[in-house]
Amino acid sequence: MTTAPTPTVVSGLAGLWRHSLAGLRVLLAFTVVLGLAYPLAMTGVIQVVFPWQANGSLLDAAGEHTTSRTDAVGSTLIGQDFTGPQWFHGRPSVAGDGYDTLASGGSNLGPNNADLAATIAERQAAVAAENSVAPEEVPADAVTASASGLDPHISPAYARLQVARVAAARHLDPAAVSRVVAEHTQGRPLGALGDPVVDVLAVNLALAGLE
Amino acid sequence: MTATVWAAIGQFGILLVLLAAVHLPLGAYMARVYSSPHHTRVERAWYRTLRVDPDAEQRWSTYLLSLLGFSLASVLLLYALGRLQAHLPWNLGFSGLDPATAWNTAVSFTTNTNWQSYSGEAAAGHLLQMAGLTVQNFVSAAVGMAVAIALVRGLARSGTDARIGNFWSDLTRGALRILLPIAVVGALVLAANGVIQSLDPHTAITTITGETQQALGGPVASQEVIKVLGTNGGGFFNANSAHPFENPNALTNLVEIFLILLIPSALPRTFGLMVGDRRQGWAILGVMTGLWTVATGLLTWAELAGPGLAPSLAGAAMEGKEARFGLAGTALFGAATTGTSTGAVDSMHDSLTAPGGGVAMFTMMLGEVAPGGVGSGLYGMLVLAVLTVFIAGLMVGRTPEYAGKKIGRGEITLVALYVLTVPAAVLLGSAISVVTGPGLAGIQEAGPHGLSEVLYAFTSASNNNGSAFAGLAAGTPYFNTMTGLAMLVGRFVPIALVLALAGRLASQNTVPASAGTLPTHRPLFVGLVGAVTLVVVGLTFIPVLSLGPVVESLS
């Protein structure tokens, strides 16, 4: 090899070319099987077996499952920007201008970022004033932006904080509002996974239905 | 708080039980797949049509050439699909990717990194996602498994003139017999829980408050499952596994963590069976489990404790995290994704606490061997085991041997080069970026966290992880080019060295263990490999870690 390096290099390149052509043939075959047949077949099967989930877990105005985007008022899995005292509010979102599904993402601000700390303090003051509680009673999820910007849930603590305000705005008995929240609170799957959460859209649709 | 800690321990226990339940059957199944001389009827037709010979026993250099040829074709096809997107069907009206983004994406998915400098829902149509990205999710994983199996054959075989198997057969079997069946089942489980699977475009719906919101469509479940199963990590959407349509609830979060760890944790069993000594597989698994458990514990502790200015003010480190996963579920996912080469994220790692982000980075710096990516985790750990027998041999004056193969000068040279390659890419890439204008321009945070952003980027790219401290503006031509180079170096140089090592080992005759042989299946050896891993990485990275996450944690 040391006596005639050039032919080795040439045969190496020629070899790479030959193997690349074989590689391209195999890749194209994989593209047909794994890139077209597999996802399309899965789409066909899942559309039949789980049509509601496959199309985005949509809810209509009555809170019923639907697969029609015309009837849908939202997805049980995708948060929305609720403002106004009569609605339960979701978490702060930095996806676009807030809950923009074409711009999912978080703030990516580091734990010691001064701007983030200032924003959290502002949010704390705003949530506290809105719900007539002390700033230290505001739970963490109410003042931090989620990772996706589309988080559909809040903690049970943040939901409890909002019950009195929503009940007053809707002229409802706070106990009735609490019952709706409880109905749409999900515990930890298998008793250990994740954290308990409240589905904000489902609660708001149920409340709108009470009137 | 106590309930949260118990839940954290509970979810860890459930995960371990699930992984343990499938360890033996999956490990044995993979050993059969890669050892069987028989092709299925479909495979015979496949090889005949594609005119490749699946039975030729390849020398390591030919095996490498086939692998490089296939990867070159992959980069070129994926680059073309990205650039030409505007002219392809199912593009949702998106234009082609610009050259730097297309290059970065092509390299990223071919190298099993899946670093994303584009936003899925705003740049990639359904065809690019399916025919481009989903395909590479499968085959780049199958390539990693093939290399690991080739190295195992090198240890198992005796006097074979550097012949270590057939790349085309290993690739095809890995993708079609192992990954595809698990993917089909996994996609159904995810879809049942709310991961979408349609070919619809994104269109507007009217919400109950009268606002409009875009309803999303896409073949997500079929891609999501192989994203985690193949330890790839490239999300369909920008928010990756934090997106509710990729990861709808705490149960799917655990399923995804399970799928991430499934093949990496079962491959040591395959290794044990193929070398004919199951105890060797247990020892390797022991090192992986020990390192990963410690990393998981530390990361969970850091996120639950929530040190730092913003977490203490808010009351918990919930910035960049999803309510449904909670702190513990997020930490478990973070440890799984950085301990393997996955890089999927269910939280924004840039917003992890300083010690939490440091643990995530350190876990990648270990070379992703705990338990590591599909294939790359096993071959990385075997290289470290070889290094350990060599070092132990120097200390006690015993002949270095591993699985009956003598570790001589040639072998240890390859191992040394392997251990140096990725750190060199990490440190050089980071160093260049913090002294040049285009590099500095991408940094978001001031002070030590800014250095962490750059260090994390090159650690992630060189180790083919793909997760990010996403505050870094990595979508610039500078970072697209540099991280692309780091991914190529970090993937193919180690693979070439591993295959060369496999060839040398396969050529040797197996020597029976003697009184002077260091047993490589005892707890002592497990501890030694763990220590060697930590020392090698520690000596390489402690200076730069001190300036980043360590300073930040102490401030």
The major β-sheet of chain A equals:
3 strands, antiparallel
Mean pLDDT of chain B: 94
Q: What is the CA–CA distance across the termini of chain A?
A: 87 Å
**Portion in helices of chain A:** 40-55%
- Whole-number total of structural domains of chain B: 1
Number of DSSP strands of chain B?
A: 4
State the total count of DSSP E strands of chain A: 6
Radius of gyration of chain B: 23 Å
Q: Summarize the helix and strand pattern of chain B as letters.
A: HHHHHHHEEHHHHHHHEEHHHHH
The major sheet of chain B is characterized as: 2 strands, antiparallel
Shape of chain B: globular
Give the helix proportion of chain B (percent range).
55-70%
Class of secondary structure makeup of chain A: mainly alpha
H/E element sequence of chain A: HHEEEHEHHEEH
Low-confidence stretches of chain A: 1-7
Question: Would you give an account of this structure?
Answer:
- The complex is a heterodimer of chains A (about 210) and B (about 550).
- Chain A is mostly helical and about 210 residues long.
- Chain A contains six helices and six strands; from the N terminus they run ααβββαβααββα.
- Chain A has helices spanning about 5-50, 50-55, 115-130, 155-170, 175-185, 200-210, and strands at about 60, 65, 70-75, 155, 185, 195-200.
- In chain A, helix 4 (about 155-170) packs across helix 5.
- Chain B has about 550 residues and is an all-alpha fold.
- Chain B has one domain (about 1-555).
- Chain B has helices at about 1-35, 40-50, 60-85, 100-110, 120-125, 125-155, 165-190, 220-230, 250-275, 280-305, 310-315, 325-340, 355-365, 375-395, 410-435, 435-440, 450-460, 475-505, 525-555; strands at about 205, 210-215, 400, 405.
- In chain B, the strands form two sheets. Chain B has a two-stranded antiparallel sheet. In chain B, strands 3-4 form a two-stranded antiparallel ribbon.
- The two termini of chain B are about 25 Å apart.
- The mean pLDDT of chain B is about 95.
- The interface between A and B is large, with 108 and 123 residues.
